[in-house]
What we know:
Pfam family, one: Abhydro_lipase
Largest sheet: 8 strands, mixed
Organism: Castanea mollissima
InterPro entries: AB_hydrolase_fold, AB_hydrolase_lipase
Structural class: alpha/beta
Strand order of the largest sheet: 3-4-6-5-7-8-11-12
Domain Partial AB-hydrolase lipase: 257-311
Keywords: Membrane, Transmembrane, Transmembrane helix
Amino acid sequence: MLQRFVDNVLAVAEESVKTFTYESLNNIVRLINGVSALLLTILPGKAKILEGIHGWELRPTFRGPRFPRWMENGVSSFNQFIYELSVDSDTSSVDYSSAEEDSDRNIYPASPSSQSSRVSGASTYTKVSKAPALSGSHQHSGLHSIKRVFTLRDQIVHRTTDRRRGVIEDLHLAIEIFIEAIFDVVHKAAHFILSPSEAFRKLFRWVSYYIGRTKENHGNVVEVSVTTDTLGENDPAPTEQNVTFYQSLNTDARTCQDVITELGYPYEAIHVVTADGYVLLLERIPRRDARKAVYLQHGVFDSSMGWVSNGVVGSPAFAAFDQGYDVFLGNFRGLVSREHADKNISSCRYWQYSINEHGTEDIPAMIEKIHQVKTSELKLSQPSLQEESDDQPYKLCAICHSLGGAAILMYVITRRIEEKPHRLSRLILLSPAGFHQDSTFVFTVVEYFFLMFGPILAPFVPAFYIPTRFFRMLLNKLARDFHNYPAVGGLVQTLMSYVVGGDSSNWIGVLGLPHYNMNDMPGVSFQVALHLAQMKHTGKFRMYDYGSASANMEVYGSPEPLDLGEHYGLIDIPVDLVAGQKDKVIRPSMVRKHYKVMKNSAVDVSYNEFEYAHLDFTFSHREELLTYVMSRLLLVEPTPKPPSSQKALRLKKKGL
């Protein structure tokens, strides 16, 4: 009786302490969210900054985007299937909006998680279609009700089981575990005092069990063999694969490969080694027999993830693939993992590169690898190509954003100067870097800071990135908290926008993407930042200034760096420039300067503006942008297929 009384007292005390601490933490979080909301109300300019944050960023929704007009023809059957699911579930969609906001829900973009929810519901819809037939309107309403129940269930299950925890949730869990551990010790001590013999037997069994478990599990990493299958492979047989799960940390560490394959697309990874030893990851959504290809290159603090982050019907990479293109996703050097041919390279040496190396080392290596792969595959699948004199049996276009646009222009111009083929047929540049003199006060301050203190800081700060796994994990989890607490997320979004001059891009949403995860993340070298400051200071789009006439003479053959704007006349392919009217990072006036210089140099160039901020070109679902980009790609006619060998032989005999 005494032992049972003690157990009851301890159980009540434990639950009371848990409830008190849980509610105390919740009240603290509510206070922080409330103070954030109060601060948000008094911050100037917040309306413009937050006006585009309607989707999965601060107000998540399960609803999918409307089917884009440009995908009406040539869309893959998989995308058609996904679209039909999203339309069918429109009336039963679940979101966090209030009832009075239902009328304008269709303007909100979809999230990657919402699209995964619709994929997970595929089997559910198949089961519904096999239900017994009903008559008249009862059949329609019955199926609709069943469909609605299953859709809600799948979405709720996905929402509760397939999401990472934030810092607040981890804190809740840690406090609960700590309280349980303390009361467990007290409980065992009470049992030991009241019943020593029974306590000793339990302690012995517990120690034996713990030792056995320790031998089986080492650390937090668990490797499991699972049966996997990837669409598009030559051999679709299931294979055994070791998958590593970081269970206790519960962070989102998905890669571009994970996103592509989860959405049902084929995938291929190609490792490219540059002339100076950097190992780059060139990713591919392959159409091996396609005679038209597209190369997509990201900007600063970004990776190939940006081109697929909007899911099936909102991402440029999937859009190009569905239009019949062989899609290649480039990744610049500059990952925290520091992939290099020299495994012992120091951090200081690894980060010693500027935009020069992006344009003269990274892009040439990746495009030459694309040429090698495409040429060998097409000649293997189409033997008649062996008789062609053309060195390039395919057409390659490039879509580049921000820093990627500056690097691709540098690549084309330097290849023309070196009289080497650049292998490109068209450039589509989304808010390209290069000219920066017209910018905000914040960027001007940063410019003078780098120019004044650059030589002093360079040896001590080789690059800008989050150096440790712990702080990268913390950022990943904080991004989830910014989603869970909209006032805090809105405040951080507004403050980050102030830092970049008022640009209303979805900065909080970008932080939540898995390429900023605990295992790796893209960084920016100090010299790349200094190179951008040099461009802004001189008002010219030119190569890196090494700081002295002798150093520049050794690299360029002249005391001044090569002015790329003066050599725009060497560009011999069409260029499409796109600017964002809300872009405060690279203002439309700077993109127009590219246009004017190219126009004066007789380049075949076009210019267009959209009402976008800087990151909207890649991280937001923009149907009109995808429509425009696809229309520009279609202006490049694919290389015509050669006649078959027998037909060619007949023509040769006839003397034609």
